[in-house]
Automatic annotation (TrEMBL):
It is found in: Cell membrane; Cell projection, Invadopodium membrane; Cell projection, Lamellipodium; Cell projection, Ruffle membrane. This is Integrin beta. One of its GO terms (cellular component) is melanosome. Residues 742-788 form the Integrin beta subunit cytoplasmic domain. The chain crosses the membrane at residues 719-741. SMART domains: INB (SM00187), Integrin_b_cyt (SM01241), Integrin_B_tail (SM01242), PSI (SM00423). It is a single-pass type I membrane protein. It comes from Pygocentrus nattereri (Red-bellied piranha).
Amino acid sequence: MDLRELPLCVLKSDHGNDCTKASAQSCGECIQVGEKCGWCTFENFLKQGESKSTRCDEVEALIKKGCPNGTIENPRGSVTVNQNKPVTNRKKDVAQTADQITQIQPQKLTLNLRAGEPQKFSLTFKRAEDYPIDLYYLMDLSFSMKDDLENVKNLGTDLMKEMQTITSDFRIGFGSFVEKTVMPYISTTPAKLLNPCTADQNCTSPFSYKNVLKLTKNGAEFNKLVSKQQISGNLDSPEGGFDAIMQVAVCGEQIGWRNVTRLLVFSTDAGFHFAGDGKLGGIVLPNDGKCHLKDNMYTMSHYYDYPSIAHLVQKLSDNNIQTIFAVTEEFQSVYKELKNLIPKSAVGTLSSNSSNVIKLIIDAYNSLSSEVILENSKLPEGVSISYVSHCKNGVSETGDNGRKCSNISIGDEVSFDVAITAKGCPSHGKSETIKIKPLGFNEEVVIVLNFICECECHDNGVANSDKCHFGNGTFECGACRCNEGRIGRVCECSKDDVRTEDLDANCRMDNGTDICSNNGDCICGTCECKKRDNPEERYEGKFCECDNFNCDRSNNKLCGGHGQCVCRVCVCDTNYTGSACDCSLDTQSCVASNGQICNGRGTCECGVCKCTDQKFQGPTCEICPTCPGVCTEHKACVQCRAFQTGEFKDTCQEKCSYFNLAIVDKKEDLPQPNSQPYLTHCKERDANDCWFFFTYSTGNDTVQVYVVKDPECPAGPDIIPIVAGLVAGIVLIGLALLLIWKLLMIIHDRREFAKFEKEKMNAKWDAGENPIYKSAVTTVVNPKYEGK
């Protein structure tokens, strides 16, 4: 086993950057890891215990580790344009051949690829006016297409006339197909081989594909030869059109294709056979994709199977052929699915007798020519490509849509941004060539890919150098590249004796039992320290006994963020000290608002005030919760010195001589707040309820007090207005109460009267007679009276 791979095994769980994970043993290996990786060529860069792979890291990390400027190998890729003919601004009346017309720019580039670094360039495409066109009409001549053949007989001259509006250089050809000439596709009885149709129909013998007319500018000749064609017949509904399309695509010489726009019109009213269907006729050999025309007839239909769709797509693309499927309504869905698999193809609906074939061809051509799709050849292993399209009206697309632009008119110019990226160097290390071309066009962009597999310093390597243990390696790029069978930092060890006890003893510190302090591997009697998950952390030292991450921490930061961890001990920055570099020697943070260190009431230790006066606290010993304010504290002294009053008036000279006093006439004459530092405005009341005003300010060891000369005392009360006001108030209140009482009585009386009136109206009197009343009239009736 190659022990140079041992560090890689240790790194399987490494979550550091790709450069350190790769464990590169040379500059060439390093730069193939990724575009960010650099190799330090400074000979004395490595510290004790560090392996050669430590030289490979991100450029910024190498600089932090101490690799001097100018000693880091970090080659960059480049793009060189070798051929850059501008796109042609062609006019219809200017004679130019197809070879003189340029529709895509540039035409050739050379790319130097560095692993992981995309190389970008732009391609411009402009659709040229009056571009030559070759059109080949491939027609199904099975019996169901009999009426269609009659309408196609005059296609040549009619189509020539219509195409004059598009191009002045137009050629047309004709071919036909039926089916493979074996059972069960056709009847192989002698009679049916002569006439596959019914007895009353005159049909030609069945055939697979026939090239009737090579591409020509003579429309009359097209009409003449097509008029001589006869319908044939077969047994099954699907036709052998794929065989015919393959031969048209690959037999360029027989068909007469030029390097111009190539159109293939495929006309049928049936489906198609494809790869695998040949087994029904006992044909199992895959289609070889080669030309097999003899006397313009396809001669191997009974030998090779139908081509697959993918095979057809490849051949049509390789030969820049755009396909137009002119099919009847019944098979539209089938051929639309086929169109989705064949780039630069179109489907048109053919009337039952092909009467609309010219309009179909014109519409399909306009549709195909208005779209440009870029296609690249097969990419070398590890190489990827991406496109971004910039089409009309500022529309940009990426991904698969980045390869194409639609709705392009003649003279329109579109562009594509192309990025090519290599993951590494190919095994052979040689240049590769790829091509990019717009589908359906004969032009292409040739791109030569050169791979950057070695650093520039590789060429200056010294073979069998004395620096590599008696010439056991090549000294290049600041390190030894060992010869076969040798390993170690300077190739000092043979693979055969790398694991001996004698060598392991050299890796034990102070004759202890731990090899490389359990922080590394003993390689050739030398400790190669393990790498950490975090590439910023590392073991070092002869026995890997040191590291840069096990020092004291403060505020969860290594060495408090103010020093470097060297062999597990903090080396502090300037103005810092302590085991974790957490003690600042700078006293700026201890300066109080009065400019004194800790307000003169404490000491500054490690940038923090330690208050010696227990009454004071806070970051600068300025907070005193139990202390009176400045104004209250100095009120008595100001009173005694300015007005000879107050509690200190008898002892003023002894207690209140610590400040300078100045008298001013008005409050406006007092110093303003921003005129002096540390100035306080005070307003205090004396025993007579008079207010006096003063300012208190501190300077350089002096205290200055300014006092307004006259206190503001409140004036005595005016008795007469007070008494008058009081009497008037009492009278007014009495009147108000009397009026309120009167109002309430009126409201009460009105309510009682209303109640009485209501009861009066509701009263009911009894109308019965007086029981002791007797009327004065007495009526007597004669008993004898009979009413006569």
